[in-house]
Specification:
426 residues, alpha/beta, Aspartate Aminotransferase, domain 1, Aspartate Aminotransferase, domain 2, 2 domains, five-stranded antiparallel sheet, 12 strands, binds pyridoxal-5'-phosphate
C-alpha cells in the first residue's frame, strides 16, 4: 500500500511508516484480542436483553414507557459489568453526567475523598475547588479532600489508607484517565487495588470512577472490580463515534436510582425522558464502541512509535500498558506543535481545508491550538489533538474512528513537521 498514491508524503517518511507498522504488529494483535472480547461481551448483552429494531422508534413528550430506552439501559449495564445504568442523550457532556452522579449521591455534610490527585479541569468547578463557582458541591455543604499522587504520578496507597482511617468518607473518587496531565492512566488492575483498600478500611464508602476515555480499553470495567458507580461521555469511547451527544451512569441499582432522581426529578426519576429518535444512534454507537476504541488504541500506539522514532518524548511509550486512548507527544517547540496540529487537521475527513491557529481559551493561561476534523463537534473518539502553547509544547492526541484513516492523519502531522524543518528523517 502506498499512501503517496493519495497524499504528498516524503519518500523517507513513507519508508519509516512501513517499519513502524511492522514494529506495532504484535501490539495491534493484542489490541484485537481485547476488541474481540469486548465486542462479544456487547453482542451477548444485545442478544440477552432482546435488542430489536422495532423498539428503537423513540418517544416524544414525557417519554413514558420507552421500550428502546429501557433495553439500551439494560445493555449498557451489562456492558459495564454493572447492576444498572442510565444512558441518555439529555446528558450534555461528560462533566454534566459526572455532576448528576455526584449530586445524585452526595448530601450536605458529606465528604468526598479523591484518590487520584487533582481531578480533570472541568470537575474542579463542580466540586468548587480552586475557583468559586455558583451552585458547586461546596455551595451545598459537601466537603472535598484529596490524596496527591506520588512523585511518579501513581496513587499513594499508604497515604490513602491513612486518610481513610482519620474519618468517615461518603465517597472515594477515582479518575481513570490521565486527562490533560502527564501522569499515567489507571489500569483496571490499579482501580481494583484502590477499591480493595477503600472497602477494607471503610466498607460503606461509595467508590465512584470517572470512566471517561477508559471504556473498552481493557477486558474489565471498574464495576467488575469493586467500583460502585461510574460515569462517562458518549462523544468519547462508548458512543462509538455514532452517538451525537449524551452520557451514561452505571453501577449499583440503588445508586443509579438516586442519580435518576437528580437527572429528572425526585419521585419521577428514570421513567421519563423522550428519546426523540436518538435511541438508534446511541444503540448503534454502543455496538460499535469496542471496535472503534480498538482503532483509537492502534492509532495511539502507532503515533507513539512513530514520534518516538523521530526523537520525541512520548507518554505512554508505544508498548506500555494503556488504560485510556490518550497519547501525549512532547514536540519541544512552538513551531513543532503548530505544524503537528496543522498536519493532523489536513488529514481529517471533515474540515481538512481549515488551518488551526493558536488562540486564547477560557480557563487557560496560554494560547491553545486544536486540531479536530470531526463529524460530531468536540468528539474526541474521532482523531483530534490539542495543546497549550507553552514549554514543553506537548500535544495530547486521541481518537480515530478507523486506524486506516487516522494513520494518515498522524503521518501527515509528521509530514507537516518535516516541511517546517522541525524533524529530520534518515
Ligand atoms: C473528557 C473528560 C471529562 C469531561 O468530559 P466533557 O465531555 O469534556 O465535559 C471528565 N473527566 C475526564 C478524565 C475526561 O477525560
Amino acid at each position: 500500500m502506498k499512501i503517496s498514491n493519495f497524499f504528498a508524503v516524503d519518500e523517507r517518511l513513507e519508508k519509516l511508516d512501513g517499519e513502524i507498522r511492522n514494529r506495532c504488529t504484535p501490539l495491534f494483535e493484542a489490541i484485537d484480542r481485547t476488541t474481540e472480547y469486548n465486542q462479544l461481551k456487547v453482542l451477548s448483552a444485545f442478544i440477552q436483553n432482546g435488542a430489536s429494531e422495532a423498539a428503537m422508534t423513540g418517544s416524544t413528550g414525557y417519554g413514558y414507557d420507552d421500550r428502546g430506552r429501557e433495553i439500551l439501559e439494560h445493555i449498557m449495564a451489562q456492558a459495564m459489568g454493572a447492576e444498572d445504568a442510565l444512558i441518555r442523550h439529555q446528558f450534555v457532556s461528560g462533566t454534566h453526567t459526572l455532576t448528576v452522579a455526584l449530586f445524585g449521591v452526595l448530601r450536605p455534610g458529606d465528604t468526598i475523598l479523591c484518590l487520584t490527585g487533582r481531578p480533570y479541569d472541568t470537575i474542579l468547578g463542580v466540586f468548587g475547588i480552586d475557583r468559586k463557582t455558583d451552585g458547586s458541591l461546596a455551595d451545598f455543604g459537601v466537603r472535598y479532600e484529596e490524596v496527591p499522587l506520588t512523585e511518579s504520578g501513581v496513587p499513594d496507597e499508604t497515604a490513602i489508607r491513612e486518610k481513610l482511617k482519620t474519618k468517615s468518607y461518603k465517597m472515594a473518587y477515582i479518575q481513570r484517565s490521565r486527562g490533560y496531565s502527564t501522569r499515567p492512566s489507571l489500569t483496571v488492575e490499579v482501580i481494583e487495588k484502590l477499591c480493595g483498600i477503600v472497602k477494607e478500611q471503610s466498607p460503606q464508602t461509595i467508590v465512584m470512577v470517572d470512566n471517561c476515555y477508559g471504556e473498552f480499553t481493557e477486558e474489565r470495567e471498574p464495576c467488575e472490580v469493586g467500583a460502585d458507580l461510574v460515569a462517562g461521555s458518549l462523544i468519547k469511547n462508548p458512543g462509538g463515534g455514532i452517538a451525537p451527544t449524551g452520557g451514561y451512569i452505571a453501577g449499583k441499582h440503588a445508586l443509579v436510582e438516586q442519580c435518576a432522581a437528580r437527572m429528572t426529578c425526585p419521585g419521577v426519576g428514570r421513567e421519563v425522558g423522550a428519546t426523540l429518535g436518538h435511541t438508534r444512534e446511541l444503540t448503534m454507537g454502543l455496538f460499535s464502541a469496542p471496535h472503534v476504541v480498538g482503532e483509537a488504541l492502534k492509532t495511539a500506539v502507532y503515533a507513539a512509535a512513530l514520534f518516538e522514532e523521530l526523537g520525541f518524548a512520548v507518554t505512554p511509550r508505544f508498548d506500555e500498558k494503556r488504560g485510556d486512548i490518550i497519547q501525549c507527544v512532547t514536540l519541544g517547540t512552538r513551531e513543532g506543535l503548530i505544524a503537528f496540529c496543522k498536519g493532523m487537521q489536513s488529514g481529517a475527513p471533515m474540515d481538512s481545508f481549515v488551518s488551526p491557529e493558536p488562540a486564547p481559551m477560557p480557563g487557560y493561561d496560554d494560547d491553545v491550538i486544536m486540531a479536530a476534523g470531526a463529524f460530531t463537534l468536540g468528539a474526541s473518539i474521532e482523531l483530534s489533538a490539542d495543546g497549550p502553547l507553552r514549554p514543553p509544547f506537548a500535544a495530547w492526541m486521541q481518537g480515530g474512528l478507523h486506524f486506516h484513516s487516522a494513520h494518515a492523519g498522524v503521518l501527515l502531522a509528521a509530514q507537516k513537521m518535516l516541511e517546517a524543518g522541525e524533524i529530520t528523517v534518515k
